UniProtKB/TrEMBL annotation:
Lineage of producing organism: Eukaryota, Fungi, Fungi incertae sedis, Chytridiomycota, Chytridiomycota incertae sedis
Keywords, sorted A to Z: Signal
First and last residue of the signal peptide: 1-19
Organism of derivation: Piromyces finnis
Protein name: Coth-domain-containing protein
Keyword Nucleotide-binding: no
InterPro entries for the chain: Spore_coat_CotH_CotH2/3/7
Amino acid sequence: MKEIYFSSVITILIALCEAAQYTFNVVSINKPFYSMGVKYNGIVTELPLKLFPLYSGSITADNINEYKYVLIDKSTGEKIEETITRVYKSENKAINEVYNRTTKEVKIPELPEPFREMFKMGTKNFKPFPNNDIYNVYANCDPTSYDNLKATPFVAQSEVNESIVNCEFNIITRKSAYQGKGTLHVIGFGSRKYKKLSWAIKLDEKFHGRKAIKLRALASDPTLIREKVATELYNAVGVPVQEGTYARLIINNDIYGLYTFNDNLSSKWIAAYVHGNEKANVGMTYKIYNSGNNSHGLKYLGDDPNSYTFYKIDEFDETKYNSKDKNSLYSHIINFTKLFNDWEVNYSNDTSEIAIKKLEEFLNLESTLRLLVIDALIVALDNFWLTGANAALYFNPEKNNYQLLPYDFDLTLQGSRGVKRLAPNEEFINDCETWTNYDESDNIDHFFTKSLLKHPLIKKRYETILAKTTRITFNPDVISQYVKALAELIKEDVQWNFDLIDHLSTSTEGKVNHFSYSDFEGNLYSTEIDTSDTIVDGYEYGVIDFVTKRSSACAEFTKNIDVSKIENENDKKGFSDEDDSCKHSISIKFSFVLFLFSIYILYH
Ligand SMILES: *[C@@H]1O[C@H](CO)[C@@H](O)[C@H](O)[C@H]1NC(C)=O
Ligand SMILES: *[C@@H]1O[C@H](CO)[C@@H](O)[C@H](O)[C@H]1NC(C)=O
Ligand SMILES: *[C@@H]1O[C@H](CO)[C@@H](O)[C@H](O)[C@H]1NC(C)=O
Ligand SMILES: *[C@@H]1O[C@H](CO)[C@@H](O)[C@H](O)[C@H]1NC(C)=O
Ligand SMILES: *[C@@H]1O[C@H](CO)[C@@H](O)[C@H](O)[C@H]1NC(C)=O
Ligand SMILES: *[C@@H]1O[C@H](CO)[C@@H](O)[C@H](O)[C@H]1NC(C)=O
Ligand SMILES: *[C@@H]1O[C@H](CO)[C@@H](O)[C@H](O)[C@H]1NC(C)=O
């Protein structure tokens, strides 16, 4: 009786096995012209299109163990098998895999944060994007305007084409698929000279709480990680910065390759990251540009708003400012520069704490100094301190003060590129404070930063932040862990990304770097770039090589600073909400006491 029962169980089990359903979800990384299939037990089965580039289907089959995805040329029927072999797991049902990319979870370590946080850096509904997924973005755009735009990213010599193109966007993540309408436009100035363009997308419906996304091409970076590392460094010291993850980008029939997929400097982002509340009223944002002789180092230029139009008005609360009235729009930049000018006149020679107190009445000094420390450590060639570019001055209405918001870190962690402001040869790398002042014949005005660092107390605080950041975060041990994890995440996309550039159809002659996988690996650590590759950007340092040298120079420069004493009041500046890190440590202490008490009870 028992035996009959047992064998029928086995029969049922076998029948169940035979009838098993296997679900496959795979993202194509090719043109819409191809479809996808799955090959198992020698059979290739085509998978239905779910939402390009995602193909999904369930197959009822005998035991499927090993399988491969197959790219199918719809016109010729040609089938191209991926190189890797996969093993089916029940979790596959819930995961979107990617053709020829291993399905893996990479843990990206957090960089240690040396200071107390000053800003919320996101909200429940506006969290940072997960940093270990590579999204897949397909933009299906109006073909004529898209083709025209990519052919003419500039309308004149140095005038950008701001046209927008209507598109439908599909965004496939590891676990979700988004579809929505929106627009696309080209972004950047220097980056627009490359054949691999950078783009911004504006969505009608939110994705992950956002409507605005920047896709940056990383066209000059053989490692594809410099911007990520730089972003994470500002983040680690508590300077709000637009962050994100990576994405593979396809627009119409153009496969662009690997991009960063980042937040934009939008009101929503400011509300969430700076104010910790997506519905917060934002103040006024002015983008600061390196506009040649117009860079006045945040100097006061009188009360006529027309003198300030080289600052670009950016995100602001339209209910509070009259967008047609220059006096209203420029009032904050006029106020700020006037306040700073007056401070400089009245207090910069006052070496007491009063000068600091007066400055902090209108400037978030702590956040400013932390930004300057990271600009210096990564030798940011096209950012606030050196060039007066790629930062915004934000009037924070909640605190009634001003702060700087940095962005776009493509020219970092690589050396000097022969920029005249930096000391020649390797000398600049040893200068961690006056590094921007070697040769000032370029007319870039450093009034603001020079006035700050002239003050002994501010200089001391700068050096203390530098010391602590160098010891805790910006050193080769910490950064190489982070770099390794990023490299692990993207390594299978690297050669594919570099090779695509020659297949990209466009009528403009953009700049092209023909990097290879070995350049990627070589430049992560040292300068190694294969000289037989034709490239337009030179590299003096590999990322880790650079971090090692810069970190050791700035550690030497600050070696006499006692960082144990600096968990001081300054760390809290700008932190308005109640201090939960303190509550947290109280509760840890309380649990520890409870724990000791239980041990006591146990033994008595
Ligand atoms: C898959 O990727 C590897 C590199 O990771 C590459 O060498 C190979 O050519 C790719 N295979 C296909 C079919 O794309
Ligand atoms: C700018 O791009 C648009 C595409 O949206 C194109 O139609 C137009 O010709 C471009 N402008 C110039 C001056 O080339
Ligand atoms: C990004 O934000 C800027 C303001 O900083 C705005 O001008 C631009 O249109 C935004 N881009 C998108 C795609 O929303
Ligand atoms: C900038 O200023 C310098 C000296 O004041 C002058 O020689 C140069 O022509 C100016 N450049 C521009 C673009 O105005
Ligand atoms: C500018 O500063 C003055 C005096 O400090 C203040 O009364 C005024 O409200 C400020 N205006 C703006 C727009 O911040
Ligand atoms: C600071 O200096 C300005 C002149 O630049 C003067 O008008 C103002 O009254 C001074 N303020 C204080 C508080 O000393
Ligand atoms: C500050 O001190 C320096 C040197 O003593 C002097 O040259 C300068 O004029 C002073 N600045 C002001 C605003 O008093």
